[in-house]
Amino acid sequence: MTDSASPVTNRPPVVGWTTFGHTGATRLLSKSYETGRLAHAYLITGPDKVGKRTLALDIACMVNSEPVVDMFGTADNIDLSTSHQAERIRRGIHSDVRVIDIDTESERDSNTPEGQREPTRTRIRINHIHDLIRDASTTPFEGLMKVFIIDGAQLMSPDAAGALLKTLEEPQESAMLVLLANTLEALPETIVSRCQRIELRPVDPEVIKTELVERFEADEATARSLSRLARGCPGWAIDALNDSTIVDGHNQAVLRFAEIVTGNVEERFRYARQTGGQFWRDRNAVLAEMQHWLEWWRDVAMMRHKLDEQVINIEWADLLGEIAGQLKNTQISAAVTSIQDATAALEANAVPQLTLAVLMLDLPWADPAKVPSLTFDDDTE
Question: Rounded mean pLDDT of 171-199?
Answer without folding.
Answer: 94
